[in-house]
Amino acid sequence: MIGRAITVKKRVIVVVSVTVLSVAVAAAMIATISAQATARPSGDSRYAGQETGFTPEGYPYRGSQDAPVLIKEYASFACGHCAHISEEMQALDRYVRDGRVRIEYHIVTFGRIGAATAAEAALCAGEQGRFWEYHDALFSSLMALGRGTFTVAHLQSLADGIGLDGREFSICLLTRRYRDRVQAMNDEAYDVPIEGTPTLIVNGRVYVGYRPADELVQIIEDALTGAGG
């Protein structure tokens, strides 16, 4: 009986030790992501020199309204392939800066864990002119930690990491100011219909799924040729 009790006690100690270690590792990873976001001032952002804002319908955009090529990007912040294509789309930044491409971001949730809350947080960041920077922070977090970490506390830490007014962001997020807007965007995606993410609609032509940078560039070049650009 004594030997059995000692064995159980050892198991408890091991379980507690592993749990504490896991929490410590997760905390360190969150701190790293926040530090990386802080290390990139807005002036050095990849979006510097790009026109950004929201359409009259409430969709975040970047690029000139007179651009000959319009990309409607349907994506979820809880979608790994969406995170990957977001990185690849950096190859299109030069087209956005020189006025040839405009990107509209259409939020899709599809009931994925954390997707709606993350989307609401991104729109709250948009109130302070940092939607796209927060968009990047969310995808970096998704790839490092997974979508299960999109708690209010973690979303707040990402906001702090990119230099947002924490109080204003917190009020926006906790009152769920953009809950209806996110739901409306998701409903619109169903109506299109969007059957998977990511989906890009480039001047009316639909591309479903992940695409590498070189393929994205070719899609834009073909669209520019078709548009006479």
According to CATH, the homologous superfamily is: Glutaredoxin
| Parts with pLDDT < 50 across at least 5 consecutive residues | 1-43
Order of the strands making up the biggest sheet: 1-2-4-3-5-6
The helix/strand series, from N terminus to C terminus, equals HEEEHHEHHHHHEEH
Q: Please provide the count of β strands.
A: 6
Nearest-integer average pLDDT: 83
Tally of structural domains: 1
* Beta-strand residue fraction: 5-15%
* Biggest β-sheet description: 6 strands, mixed
CATH class category name = Alpha Beta
**CATH topology (level 3) name:** Glutaredoxin
What proportion of the residues is helical, as a percent range?
40-55%
Which outline best applies? globular
Rounded to the nearest angstrom, the radius of gyration is 21 Å
Structural class: alpha+beta
Q: How many DSSP H or I helices? A: 9
Distance between the termini: 83 Å
CATH architecture: 3-Layer(aba) Sandwich
Question: Which characteristics define this entry?
Answer:
disordered N terminus; 229 residues; alpha+beta; Glutaredoxin; six-stranded mixed β-sheet; globular
Per-chain topology:
Elements: H1 2-38, E1 52-54, E2 60-62, E3 69-75, H2 80-88, H3 93-97, E4 101-107, H4 115-126, H5 131-145, H6 152-161, H7 166-174, H8 179-191, E5 199-202, E6 205-208, H9 213-226
Parallel strand pairs: 3-4
Antiparallel strand pairs: 1-2, 2-4, 3-5, 5-6
Helix pairs in contact: 1-5, 1-6, 2-5, 4-5, 4-6, 4-8, 6-7
